[in-house]
Structures are given as C-alpha cells and as structure tokens.
Amino acid sequence: MSYINKQNTALVRVKLTDVGRELLAKGQLTFDFWSVGDSEIDYNYVSGWKKFKPSTNAKTGQFLYYNADGTINTNYQQILRPKDKQPTQKSYLINSNNEITNRLDSNSSVRLIKGVISNQAEDRGFFSGSTVDTGLVMSTSTLYIKETGSVNLGNFSGGSDTTTYTKGVLELDTPLTATSVNDYIVFKLSNSTLGDTTETAMTAATINQFYNINDITGNTITLDRDLPILSANSGTDIAYYTIPGGNNPADDWYGKDSSTAYWNTGTLSFNSSNDICVENIPVWNMSNVWDENMAGQFEDNSNTYHNHELFGSEQYIGTKLLLGYKEASTRIITQNQLSLSYMDNYQKGISILHYTNNTISNFYGEFLHIDEDNGKLLSLDVPVMWHRRNEGTESGTTMGMRFVSDGVEKTLTNSQHKYYDLIEYSGMSVTPTTPLVVGKVFHNLKMVVVENEELLAATSYKSNRNYTLPDLAGSLVNCTDSCGGLLNQNETLYLTYYLASDSGVTETLPCQRYTKVKNTGIDTKDFEFRLEDVDRLPYMRKVEKGSYDGAGFYANDFVVLAQIIDESVTSRPDPKEWREIDFTSTLITSGAGETIDPTLLENQNPNVTGFKMTKTLYTGATNFNLGVHLDLPNGNYYDKMNFGDERLFFGNLRTHIGATMYKTLFTLNIDGAEFGDSSNMTYGTGSDRYVSEVAIRNTNGALVMAGKLSRPIRIANATTATIEVTMDF
Fold first, then answer.
1. How far apart are alpha carbons 134 and 119 in whole angstroms?
2. Distance (Å, rounded) from C-alpha 317 to C-alpha 204?
3. Do 354 and 285 meet the contact criterion of CB atoms below 8 Å apart?
4. Which of 49-53, 700-704, 716-720 holds the top average pLDDT?
5. Which helix (H) or strand (E) holds 630?
6. What is the arithmetic mean of pLDDT over 565-573?
7. Which end of the chain is more exposed for a tag (fewer CB within 10 A), N or C?
8. Is 644 left (phi over 0), alpha (psi -120 to 50) or beta?
9. Same domain (yes/no): 458, 487
10. Phi, psi at residue 721, to the nearest 5°?
11. Contact 575/296 with Cβ under 8 angstroms?
C-alpha cells in the first residue's frame, strides 16, 4: 500500500488525486499541462555503489553488488505509490525555458482510446441441467424456490370457500412448512393418461398453473380462485413448487439472509450503512404491464371487477410510455388489401424482464453484449407450449420454447434507445427462415421486453394457461344473410377467440391477439375467418384418437369473440361490448360430443365449416364477461391476485455482458537535451537526470493526476524517453 512493487520494466502507477476527483465532481476537470520530477531521487546513490560496482557500469538507477556466491544483486530506489491526497512534486526536471510545467500539445499529447470488453454471464432462472432442446429441469434448491412436494389429483375435487369471495381449497399430501401466505404455488398438472409428473424434469408438455396462497391451515391451503376438478384422475401424482410472493420478493426473500453492510467496517465505517445482499440472486424479475382492459373485463352491476388501473403493474406503465409502446403506428392498407384482415396494431400489454435485485454486485456490467458474428446472443428458455414450435400438429411433446436476440442493432423511432429484435430460435421455429419477432432486447437498458401478447398471456400467472394460440385471419365477403350484411361502410370488426374444455381444467384467458378488418367499400359485407395457417397447434390433442398421449391440452368448444366499432366515434373496442359466438360443430370435432380435432380446425374452409360472421350471429350473441370465467378480483379486495402481479420470470435467461472501456492515454516525450537540469538539491550540474514521478495538471497548474514509476528511468543529454500514462474510466 505504500511502496510500489518492483517490476522488470518501468511501470507507471497513476492516481486521480483528491483535487482531481473534486474537480470531476464539479464538472471542471481538465488536462492541460504535465511535469516530471525526481523528488525521491538522491543523486548521490543513483549511479551504482562504486565501492562494490562490477566491471560493468550500473545503469538506469540500479544498485549493483556481488552476493556471497558471486551472483549480482540488483536494487532500485524505492518509490512511494501515488496517493489520493498527493502533495505536489518537491523537485522537477527543468526544460530549456527554465519552466517546470509543459503544455500537452502535439509533441506530448492526450488522446482517448475506446474499447469493449465482454464476458459470459451465468445462466439465471428457475431451471438447470438442461434446456428446451431436451426438456427443462426445475431447480429445487431453496436458492430458487421455497419448497416442493407432490399431491394426488384426487384431491382436486372443486372445493371452494365463497366467504367474501371465491377461493379454491385444496388439501395437500403434506403440510407446507417454509411457505407463507401471499406466496405462489405452481402445479405441474397431469392426467391419468400422461401419468405422474412428480419428477423435476419438465420435459413433458403439461399445463402449469400459478395460484396465490391466501391461507395455510395444516395440510389445507386456500388459493385466490377456483381450482380445476381433476378427481377423475385419482391415483396420479403431480409436483408443486412454491415461490416467494409479495411486491418485492427480490428484497424480501432472495438473498435477504446474506445481506450485510455495504461498506467494509474493517476499513471504512459510516454512521448509516446500507444492508445489501452480497450473494448471487439467481432469478430475473418479470413485470407484465397492461394499459387496456381485456375483452370482457368491465365493471358490471353485480361485480365491480378491477380494471387495468388496479393491476399490479401500474408502477411500470411509465416504461411502456418511455419505450414507445403507447404510440400505435398507423397501418397503411393498399388497394388490394382492402378485403383482408390484419392484426391490431395497438400494444395492449408488454412483459418487462429485468434484473432488479438488492445486490451490490453488478452481474450484468454496463450492457448486455450482443455480437452475432461471434455467437454472442441473448436467449430465453421459457416453459410454455409455443404454438409455432416446429413439431407439427398434435406432435409437440417437449415443453418450452427458446427466443433469441437477432444481430442487427436498431434505434427506436424518435428516440435514442437502441435495441435488437427478440425472435424465435430458428432451430425451433415453424418458419426457420423468417422467425417471428416477439419482442425487443434493450441491451443498454439491460432489459428484455416481450411484446407478443400471446406469449405475455402464457407467462401471466392469472391466465390459467401456459400455452399460446395462433392468430385468426379472414376476408370480407359478399353478404348472404337475409338480415343484411355484418359490416357497413367504414365500420371495423375486431375478432378473437378462446378454446373451452370440459377436462376439469379451469377456463382460460382468450387469445390476446386481435384480428381486425375495416369495410371501406359501399356495400355491406360479411366476414369469413380461419386460423392463420397449418402447423400452428403442435400441443393440441384430440382425446378420441388412439394416439392420444395425455400431453398438451384439448378443447371441446371453439368460441369466437367479436365487436364492431365506428372508428370515427371511438378508436378502441369497448371491453363490455364483446359478443361471444360458439362455432363448434362436428365439422371440427368429427363426432358429436367429441373434442376438437386440431387438424380439422387448422384446415378449415369457411364455406364448409361455416366459419362466417354474419349479422344474424352477431346481433343474436350474448356479451362476454371475462370476470365470470377467470374469477377476477372485485369490490374492495385489492390484495387478491390479478394480472400484473407477476414479479418473477419463470424461465431462464442467458447472455453475454459488456462494458465500454474509456482509456485516457497521455504520451509524454522527454528529450534529454531539452530537460537538462533539475531542481533536486542533490543534483550535480551536467549529470544524468532521473525521473521518478509524472504529474498531469489542469489549466491552473493544480495536480489532478499523479503517477509514480516502479523504478526510476535515466535521462541523458543524448537520449529521449517516452512515458505513457493511462487512466481507465
């Protein structure tokens, strides 16, 4: 800490002085002059100890003498390290103008060197041991979850407590001991065909559902909403996991036991220290942000369902604004597209993945480093049943999908925010040459934004599904309804759907991607629709097929939600005005009372299946109420789990990290003929000079940066020395 350790070559130890740091804090730091000194040189000793000098002359400040065994020992003058409160130099080398300071100019200069350094960050998330390629493996360590166990499906009998509001009641096989009220419990659901799912591997494609724990009494837990009725599958055991709940699990649970004072009290002690976790927080945060009520979410006369302003994500709504997601772009429709549908361009919701944890360690550097040429891409492994995974209709058996950053940096319109598109991993995409964009990687902000609202729905704790649904597509057609056409001139139709099941699994959130079409012609029109394409239902099953394996999900009903608006009056559909029409028929089930055949559903011909929205169907339809389906919070029960209450990303994130290194390089050229004198009291005129220190000074001559050499260097009249001093910022 005091003297500089000796080096084989002269090494400059440099320090921004206390004066320099103060000027930096004021925004007044400048580099204008330099000087070299010999304050720690006693010229009576720098030429070697002549009494013991070998036959060769001592050079560059060496002390040479023989050891007892005849070897030569070499020493140098000891030089003190530069200090924060470094005093000014005591003695200087003097130039030909009899000056001790020299201006930084073309001969001795200061310049900037910029570089990027990167490293592989540790994979973080709830899964380990594998990836979505072969199946995710749940980490059961208490570093990740609170506890795990199993429960028989026979216990899922539909028990509920309707006191104050509907709450699901479930008796576990063993009581929870480490879990608290307001934590979450995740069930890896199964059925008698698929069998037990108690292993940690999540290879099998199963429906995983999150619930908020309202009460724990012995073996019995009470949850935030109705549970599925699965008692017909008695004898099948499933796994559950509990994870920390509350608004700030990163602060309240992860790393809490290892928090310590920020400052090391063995060196510096402050009156008010911050207690911060010093461990690796192994998971990422997730904040799902909605700024529009979902279809069917409204306040009716009997139930005042909470709207999006009472979601748990309202505190993150400013980020949605910052990143331009409230600025719906205008879609230009060319003449030949007037009859075709297109996707709603308003971003109702986004999912923000961020690492906001109470830890002093900067695990992600200055930015997330993306470099496609060197294989450095960010990737997400998410335990969802993605409708575009390339396993073919009814063939998807492996849980999960990977999403990666692309390699092209882009800039937001009217913003300086840089990003990379988040896309499907081409090796798993049904369209590998044109993988779907699902979000953005804001690498400088060190966050990922999921903007595909179906992926957002599948990762929402309240949606009751971890599978995604394909888009609808369609066209305006001539009216065949005796009651007249569905759409008048300049009217716009919004369309989405949900799949309902009698499997006992609770009802699910409808597809969150809206299809829309506008009638710009004079004549009234009907609307024919279909699924967007084939091979978009890899995880959907038909139970009655002999090949049924119990994986994935199945549906009994195909229900379409529709709403017509006049965009000259209102720009968005009204949540309480969505109509629901059941389009289930034997043309998509193949048999009465059977489950839907995914192949028939995908290959539908509207003229055959009757997938046509007419005025008669629309006007005769009932209004859709999401609150009835999902048991949304109502009244004054603000603490009941809602959309937006998610806090932890149930998946894994892998990335490289980076930092920009700014190096200030000072090149000081010392011409022996120019610096021919010294103010050192031991210096004899005409002798060689020695440099032990350098100084960088501001315009007023104040010492702002001090450098000390590990060993002095000799300056003769006929020699020139170049000293490079660097400071990293």
1. 26
2. 36
3. yes
4. 700-704
5. helix 626-630
6. 93
7. N
8. left
9. no
10. -115, 140
11. yes
The mean pLDDT of 397-418, rounded to a whole number, is 93
Show the tokens assigned to 140. Answer: 């059961």
662 neighbors 729 (Cβ within 8 angstroms): yes
pLDDT value, residue 351: 96
Give the single-character DSSP code of 92: B
Spell out the residues 6+ positions from residue 22 whose beta carbon is closer than 8 angstroms to its own: none
- Residues 191 and 251: beta-carbon distance below 8 Å: no
Sign of the alpha-carbon torsion through 436, 437, 439, 441: positive
96 and 169 part of one domain: no
Domain count, the chain: 4
* CB of 512 closer than 8 Å to CB of 294: yes
Nearest residue to 508 via CA among 564, 575, 554? 554
- Scan for tokens 């490293």, then name that residue: 119
Cβ count within 10 A of residue 272: 5
**What is the signed CA dihedral for 402, 403, 408, 411, rounded to 10 degrees?**
-170
Both tokens of residue 22? 């103060």
**Two tokens, residue 596:** 């839907």
Q: At CA 498, angle to CA 488 and CA 317, rounded to 5? A: 85
List C-alpha distances in Å: 427 to 22, 66, 247, 310, 469: 54, 70, 37, 40, 20
H-run or E-run covering 659: strand 656-671
Pairwise pLDDT comparison (362 vs 399), residue with the higher score = 399
Q: Which residues pair with 622 in a beta bridge?
A: 580
Mean pLDDT of the chain: 88
Q: Work out the number of other CB atoms within 10 angstroms of the CB of residue 357.
A: 23
Spatial CA neighbour of 149 closest among 127, 173, 181: 173
Taking the C-alpha atoms of residue 540 and residue 392, their distance in angstroms, rounded to an integer, is 10
CA 552/CA 204 separation, integer angstroms: 8
Is residue 69 assigned to a domain?
Answer: no
Q: Both 489 and 616 in a single domain?
A: yes
- The alpha carbon torsion through 31, 35, 39, 45 (nearest 10 deg) reads 140
Residue corresponding to tokens 């201006």: 103
Residue whose token pair is 């070559």: 9
Q: Which of 7, 72, 120, 5 is nearest to 655 (CA)?
A: 120
Same domain, 203 and 222: yes
DSSP string of 499-561, one letter each residue: EE--SSPPP-PPP-PPEEEE--SSS-EEEEEEESSSS--TTB--TTSTT--S-SB--SEEEEE
Examine the domain organization and report whether 411 and 451 are in the same domain: yes
Q: Is 374 in the same domain as 301?
A: yes
DSSP-assigned letter for residue 231? G
Please give the pLDDT value at position 263.
63
Structure tokens at 380: 């997400």
On whether both 229 and 302 belong to a single domain, the answer is no
Annotate 394-450 with DSSP letters as a single string: T---B--EEEEE-S--EE-TTS--EEEEEEE-TTTBSSTTSPPEEEEEETTTTEEEE
The burial class, CB within 10 Å (0-12 / 13-18 / 19+), for 482 is exposed
* Helix or strand holding residue 587 (H, E): helix 586-589
